[in-house]
Amino acid sequence: MREIVHNVYRQFPFYYFTEEKAQETWMEMDGETLAEIEKRNGAYLEEVAENERNLREENAKKSKEANLEKNSSVSEESKKINNTDKIENKDNSEMSEVIENSENHLNSETQPANTLPQSNIVLPHPILDLSRDKLSDYDYLMNNFYIVDENTDASAAKINAAEFLAEDFSLSHGPLEPQILIYHSHSQETFSDSREGEEEDTIVGVGNYLTSLLSEKYGYQVIHIKEAFDMMGGELDRNKAYDYACDYVEKVLEENPSVEVVIDLHRDGIDEDRRLVTKINGKDTAQILFYNGLSYTNAQGKVSYLPNPYIQDNLAFSFQLEYQAALYYPDFYRGIYLAGLRYNLHLRKRALLLEAGAQTNTVQEVKNAMEPFADILNRVLKGCGTG
Fold it and tell me: What segments bear the compositional bias annotation Basic and acidic residues (predicted)?
């Protein structure tokens, strides 16, 4: 993926970015417009916040009941003789352990490189304020969820959290038919320790691992396209890679109309002195960036030769994924980048361009990132996009 100009990187309160410069996207909105946005968003997002609180309380209650049941075999007489305090202390200790483990996603062991991770019970623990009042505030939404390229304008799209979260992205086709398609417009992207000529050390190898996770752990039927769209004619050429990829993927989709999710998997290109890494499940994990095209540039307005009937669906899909990341993996994601062109997101309403790590990450860090990404994708595709 091409280098993103340095002045679009900003400090987010929940990203722990190390960027030295900040850019603000100023949006002019009058009080009446903001009031209308808050009115529409309010009721729905209040329900979302309430559901989150209820879920946390219910999980804590179940853990407490499980501990009490475990100790029920102790005789009533023993409970009366000096053991009451011990049992209560044991319950409190185990509950503290449950809470501590949930904050670390309940698994601190590093998985072998070629082994699929075991299922984890992950409880929501957002750092970002996801309350009704905050998410209905347009400026708050833009400053904390989005990065706007200098060549486009966010007002070209309708950015509305309540409407995004209300959309149902559950799949209508079961695993007897292909459901998800993964491809790579820039198949030659590599990482800091990639071995030359080794597919597993490229973004295609990352796609192999994501395919394994989605099919073997979550039960989806996945098509993984490995064609080198950026190597036409034997020379590296990324200028027309999106066109070549579009022609090829369209034919595959015509042959497999059951496919509802299309993911173009990339890695980012950043300054060599930066590393996009965090800790998840005890493992060094590359951070991710969602990428949306608005088919709108400041220079020419609406880009009519790049029509996309799914722009709002694309935006809702990436927002629900980021919302899930904000709930369960709050320092995993970098934001949603809004750019001016289309990037083949018109192929499906559940189309996504994902930037996983960058050239300064190791291969394993980026493969590790596919585990939390597969988790949040599964949550959205199961209709849990609102938490």
Answer: 51-68, 76-93
**Nearest residue to 161 (alpha-carbon basis) of 53, 79, 46, 62:** 46
Residue 334 backbone dihedrals phi, psi, to 5 degrees = -105, -15
Domain count for the chain, please give it. 1
With residue 151 as reference, give the H or E element that holds it. Answer: none
- Measured in whole angstroms, the distance separating CA 113 from the mean position of its chain's CA atoms is 22
| 3-state secondary structure (DSSP) of residue 94 | helix
Cβ contact 354:139 at 8 Å? no
Categorize the per-residue pLDDT at 23 as very low, low, confident or very high, splitting at 50, 70 and 90: very low
Residues 306-327, mean pLDDT to the nearest whole number: 97
Contact assessment for residue 120 and residue 98, using Cβ atoms and an 8 Å cutoff: no
Q: Which of 276, 368, 351, 364 is nearest to 315 (CA)?
A: 351
Query: Is 338 inside any structural domain?
Result: yes
Between CA 309 and CA 216 the distance in angstroms is: 33
Query: How far is the C-alpha of 64 from the C-alpha of 69, rounded, in Å?
Result: 9
CATH of the domain at 172: 3.40.630.40
pLDDT of residue 307: 97
**Lowest mean per-residue pLDDT among 53-62, 142-151, 220-229, 301-310:** 53-62
Q: Residues 6 or more apart from 196 whose CB is under 8 A from it?
A: none
Question: What phi, psi does 47 have (nearest 5°)?
Answer: -65, -40
Q: Give the mean pLDDT of the chain.
A: 80
Is 56 part of a structural domain of the chain?
no
In a domain, 358, yes or no: yes
Is residue 5 over pLDDT 70?
no
Give the type of residue at 274. Answer: R
> Nearest Cα to 275, choosing from 285, 266, 265, 283?
285
Residue 4 forms part of a structural domain = no
The position carrying tokens 């022609």 is 247
Q: Taking residues 254-264, report their average pLDDT.
A: 98
Q: Report the C-alpha gap between 257 and 179 in whole angstroms.
A: 9
**CB 297 within 8 Å of CB 334:** no
Per the structure, the complete domain to which residue 274 belongs is given by 126-381
pLDDT tops 70 at residue 370 = yes
